[in-house]
Amino acid sequence: MKLKSLLGASLLLISSQSAQAIERMYGVIGAGYSDLEYRQAQDESFSYKLVLGHQFHRQWYVEAGYYQFADIDAESDGSGFSLQSDALYLGVLGKASHPVGELFYRLGVASVSVQSAELSTGGDCAVGTAVATAGNQTVCGYDESVAAGLIGLGFDYYVATKTFIRLEAEYLRGKDGFDTSFISLGVRYNFN
Q1: What DSSP element (H or E) covers 12?
Q2: Buried (b) or exposed (e) across 39-52, using 16+ Cβ within 10 A?
Q3: Which of 14, 34, 35, 55 could disulfide-link to 182, CB 3.0 to 4.6 Å?
């Protein structure tokens, strides 16, 4: 009898913790502008992010997310240059509440993937190493992962009970000269 009571109490505790965890979760979809620099590659383009967050304290959040920083296809712009960059990140947010929203700052780490290719006619590669050659043209490129640190500042403006408009600015810096700034506008939705 005690075992059944103990098992029932444990299940009740676990289910209440799961429900409370879901109540404190939120998602963010944002889009904006990024300015990416890595080695000789530079790009200013439309970017977006997807985030899942959890409030673990009244003033602290933890977030995990995905960034798309650059997606330039060599054939679409006619320059013979392509650049793709995206990242997965984990961050901690501290917040200060206000009657119209929440001001927050973010500290985090990211694993950034950068792929670049460029068509060279001289045979020498200014970017990466030779991937393929045809006649006097050489395709030069690289596919690398970079660890980066992240800082950010933003504001979640209350729109409805569970919905916020998020405006934020972020900066990522990593090894081998990886450097990007990201300004975005998005929507935060609380799941509770």
Answers
A1: helix 2-23
A2: eebebeeebbbebe
A3: 34
If phi > 0 it is left, if psi is from -120 to 50 it is alpha, else beta; for residue 56 that is alpha
- Amino acid at residue number 138: T
Q: Which two tokens stand for residue 118?
A: 């460029």
In a domain, 61, yes or no: yes
Task: Domain count for the chain, please give it.
Answer: 1
Q: Using CA atoms, how far apart are residues 161 and 95, in angstroms rounded to an integer?
A: 18
Helix or strand run (H / E) with residue 2 = helix 2-23
Query: Within 10 Å of residue 154's Cβ, how many Cβ atoms?
Result: 24
pLDDT given for residue 134 in this prediction: 67
pTM: 0.77
pLDDT digits (tens, 9 = 90+) for 86-124: 999 999 999 998 889 999 999 999 999 988 777 777 667
Q: Is residue 8 part of a domain?
A: no
